Amino acid sequence: TSFSTPKKKKRDDGMREHVTGCARSEGYYKIDKKDKLKYLNNNRAFAEEPPADTQVRTRPLLPAGRRSEQRRLLSSFTGSCDSDLLKFNQLKFRKKKLKFCKSHIHDWGLFAMEPIAADEMVIEYVGQNIRQVIADMREKRYEDEGIGSSYMFRVDHDTIIDATKCGNFARFINHSCNPNCYAKVITVESQKKIVIYSKQHINVNEEITYDYKFPIEDVKIPCLCGSENCRGTLN
């Protein structure tokens, strides 16, 4: 069957007017290159110079759960806006790409899968918050169970983060006397957290390291970092 195609009408702005009143009901049709170019140029100019009252509306919305978490983090800014909290907020929503694999320093290590700039938050040291008394008990129990390495990180005088059986990739970071990262204690929502920062630019596939800063003891733990200024021991 053949039927006459309704004559194309154009609006004042040069675009075709839909005969049926709805673009979806008319199916696929081609647009003249001149009209298409005019439409693209208008949109491009609008995108380059957005109105002041629409700049906030065009921001992508976060899921409800993340928005509430972001509000909780922002509410912890009492008066002044702390840069550490801002960076920690960014770290929660945009984690660095890291991987753990065999290390030339010791056993397993953590490596960067993307370039990391200097003074960036790399990863949070996650584990169970325990007291000093519990840490002493667990250390003896780990020795009895044959666990060679315990991953405990001291936060303050009586708080220790134990990542031996409950932690993340941060526990695989090896010690180095010439590290490319350092550990820092920050406070978020009245809770102390340990975050690993980058001291310098870190390349892809470069191992993440920091100085454990163990206290000086009579029984020495050998250091295998192999750096030029290696102290020879961890403590």
TrEMBL record:
Domain Post-SET residues, every copy: 219-235
MF-aspect GO terms: histone H3K4 methyltransferase activity; RNA binding
Transcription found in the keyword field: yes
InterPro entries from the UniProt entry: COMPASS_Set1_N-SET, Post-SET_dom, Set1-like, SET_dom, SET_dom_sf, SET_SETD1A/B
Domain SET as annotated: residue spans: 96-213
PROSITE patterns: POST_SET (PS50868), SET (PS50280)
Keyword terms, alphabetized: Chromatin regulator, Methyltransferase, Nucleus, RNA-binding, S-adenosyl-L-methionine, Transcription, Transcription regulation, Transferase
Domain of life where this protein originates: Eukaryota
Gene Ontology CC, one term: Set1C/COMPASS complex
Pfam families: N-SET, SET
Protein name: SET1B methyltransferase
Native source species: Crotophaga sulcirostris
Lineage: Eukaryota, Metazoa, Chordata, Craniata, Vertebrata
